[in-house]
Structure formats: C-alpha cells, structure tokens
Amino acid sequence: MIDLDKKTVVVTGGAGFLGSHVVDALKWQTTAKIIVPRSWKYDLTTEEGVSRLYTETNPDVVIHLAAVVGGIGANREHPGSFYYKNLMMGALLIEQGRLRGLEKFVAIGTVCAYPKFTPSPFQEDYLWEGYPEETNAPYGIAKKCMLVQLQAYRQEYDFNGIYLLPVNLYGPKDNFDPSTSHVIPALIKKCVEARESRAESISCWGTGSATREFLYVDDAAQAIVQATMQYDKPDPVNVGSGQEISIRDLVELIAEYTGYSGDIVWDSSQPDGQPRRLLDVSKARVEFQWQATTKFTDGLRKTIDWYEISRSA
Q: All domains of the chain, ordered by start, with CATH?
C-alpha cells in the first residue's frame, strides 16, 4: 500500500490516450505532484534521457505508460523498432528507478504478450505457455520483458514493481490515425468517412471471426490508479472487461452507430491476428477491488460522439 498524497508521480506517456486519463484520475483522487515527461525533452530509449528524467524530477513513483504501439499493420511494418524502443524504455526506467531508490514502479504490459493460442479466458499463469501471435510478437515480448525484470529485481534488490496487463482499450482521445490506430478507432473513422462519401462498401481485414475484449479507457485508468495505491505483489494482473465480441459483430455495431449503411467486404488475404482475446479478470477484483463498470455499447457511443465532435471542432 502506498499513499500517493504529496508524492511525486511521473507518468510516462501521460500526454497520450491512456496516460491523459490516468493523469486525470490521479488529480481527482490524490494530491500527488504529477509530472508528464515529453518525448521531445526526454528520449526514454537512451540512458542519458532516462537518467536526466530521474535527476530533474526526483520521483517517488513511476507509472510507465509510454510505448511505441500500433495495430496489425504498424506491427508488421515496424517489428524491429517496436521491439527495440519498447524494450529499452522499460529496461532503462526500471534500472534507473532501482539505482535511485524509487518507492514503486508500475509497468503497463499488453495483452499481446499472451501466446497465440492461449485458452480463453486468459489467466495470468498462461503467459509463458507459447509464443505470441506473430504479427505483434516483437512488441508483446518487449513489454513482457518488464515483468521478468521487475520480478528479478524484487527478488534480488527488494524493488517494488508491479505489472498490469490491460486488454485492448478504446474511448475518447483515442488515436484515429489509420496508419497506427487500433481496431475500434480505425473502424469508426472508416465508417464515418464512408457514410459521408456515400461509399457503397468498406473493406475490413481478415474474416471477422476473431474475437476481442475491449476496455473503456476510464475504467483502465481507474484500475491503474487503484493498483498503484493498493497492489504490491510480483504476479502480473489482467485488466479487462471480461466480455468479448467478434470483429464481424463489432464492425456491424460501429456501422449502425455511425449511420453507415453500405456493404462490408472482408479481405481474407489479410490476417485476423490472434484468434481470441478474453481475459480472466478475477485477480484484479481480489487484489485491488477493481472491476470495469462501463457497458461496451455505452462506451462505444461515447467514443463515436467524441470523434464526431472533435472532427468538426
């Protein structure tokens, strides 16, 4: 347990999608001094950048959300840079935190770390029972390396680090750039633009048979804050909604909510990605009394509404 009031908390990636919601949650619930390092000032893939961040901010707690991330296309195009940059950020931030006596390090992993054919629902014990889905394996493995490092550092140095595994996120402020966005914002953008251009059809990758679990970003932010304050064990913890939907049903739902009425064409020459993603989220309820509260259809409507408004602003 840690009382964040009057602590200095560095949130890497705090200006990003999830990070901005975590910063808001911290401000609402604590009196912590919150610092959001920017990439133009601190290159967290270098020892110099990370060392200078710690020297200039002197944090008590680091919540590491910064990542180089994207959807299937981005992962296929940049496997090397995704692996290297995510690996270096995690390793250097944890090592410098250890050297400087950091009180707590909160690492945010990824559902991509799980093996490709993990039985559903995914339990944390399944993390090492196979290789991740190929299109995002370099990213997933780089993020999973933080778990190994934190567990080793706890054993040797008594370093307090925790590791959370959030499922696919969505919500207001998401990344809608089609070259790097994940499935929900990419589909929202595609359907809205098709509606406006009165396109007869849209093309979607894969067969639509893969399933995904999605977590509303405010729920994820709350989970991270609660875990930061209450959870102090070496075991990874899943953070998800505990519900799944097929990509085909997801596309049809987004088409309905955005008012797109054309055809949906499935390009089976493109990959589906991991066949299923559904997390067992029971550990989060037990360990730090958290569970998702946002109904998926409500969160999806809020996300679409935010995108429509932000485009016209």
A: 8-171+214-243+276-294 (3.40.50.720)
